[in-house]
Structures are given as C-alpha cells and as structure tokens.
Amino acid sequence: MNLIVDVGNTQIKFAVFEGDQLLEKYISNFKNALASLQEILENFPDLSKSIISSTAVLPDALKHTLSHKLHLVEFSHQSQLNFVNSYKTPETLGLDRIALISAAAESYPHQNVLVIDAGTCITYDFINENSIYQGGAISPGLQMRFKAMHTFTGKLPLITESYQGSNYLGKSTKEAMQIGVFNSICYEIDGYIEDYLADYEDLTVVLTGGDYNLLSASIKNSIFATPNFLLKGLNIILQLNSN
Fold first, then answer.
1. In the beta sheet, which residues pair with residue 6?
2. Maximum CA extent, the chain
3. What are the catalytic residues?
4. pTM score above 0.85
C-alpha cells in the first residue's frame, strides 16, 4: 500500500492507495499533520511506501516519521517519469504540474490531453499523443483575482464567496465582482480549449483542482472533471521510483 503526501502552502493532503485504487484521503493543517500521519499509519498497517511532494517547508517531525516507518521517495525534478518532458526550463516546472501530466499519460495513453488545474493558480498543461509534454500556461485563480481587485483598488471589498450561475448583470458591486471573476475564468477556460481544438480535433480535456466542481457545470466544451487527478499522478510517480 502507498501513502501520498502532498504538502501545500496552507494544508497537507494524505492519500492511501492500494495499487491504483484510492482508498482514503485526509486533509490536515501543519499543526496537526503529525497526529494525522500517526492515525493513518495505525489505520493502515500494510502501508509500505510513501512519496512527498512539497511546495512548502516540510515539518521535520513528519519527514522523520515517514522515513523511519516507510520506504520514502522524495519527489523532485530528477524523478523518473512516464512521459518525455520537452519544457525549456524543466527545473522550474512545478511538481504539481508534473504529477498532473503523469496522471494524464497513464489515464489517456496515445491521446492529446489538456489538463486544467483550477486552484490557487489555474494551470493549463498539454501532453500530445506521443507522450511528449509540450508546455502550457498559468493564470490567477479565483480567490487570487478577488484579492487582487481588493488589494490594488481603494474601495473594492474583499470577496470570499464564490458565484456560480449564468447571470452577467451584477446588481451590486459585490455581485459585479463575483460575476466578473467567475465568468472571466469560464470564458478563459473555454477560450483555451477552443485554441487547442483548432489544432487537435481529438483533444481530451481534464478539469481538476480545488475549484473544479464550481466551474465544471459552466464550461461549454466537453471535459472530464475529476477531483483527485494530482494524487493519482503522485501515486504513479511513486510506483515508478520506488524499486
């Protein structure tokens, strides 16, 4: 059994896999991460391998426990992958984006795949039918757009509640901001998909990330919406690098 540890800026995700099957997922803050890990180890005594993907500083106690209890793989730009990376600066490519492309290569072999991750930032990553990663794009995510409008203006409020719907006329400043941010993201995503479809008629599109559920119903183009694509990719990379 495999334990996936995805360390973000504000929280840590743990995921237990039996082969390719996701059995359980836990979300913890940094303060309670060690207690969560110990609970997972008690609940799943057959765990034998683990991988860490980190965009923040990993707590020393967490890493120490993982390395002593399990065979630990630290995901890096030197890790073995299941696709060819043609990015011009591979050392700067986010590990989360690498994991997403790994999941795409495994889930949709011999297909042109665009992976859209709607999180803090929105990332667009494309792998072609020959399993060659071509690159992509990065834009501000939903909450980042709200914060930017509040930070760089004198009077616009800080909005935290997301909008979902088809309206385009805001009747208040709050509604106008919510509609503007939500619709601009939907238009952006559909626009990117249309650009790719112009070159790749057989395109497969995967939407994932923290805001995938909020956005998926409002995207006009055909997509596959999935919440755990990143964790699946990390599990694939663990299997490739644990022998």
1. 13, 53
2. 59
3. 96
4. yes
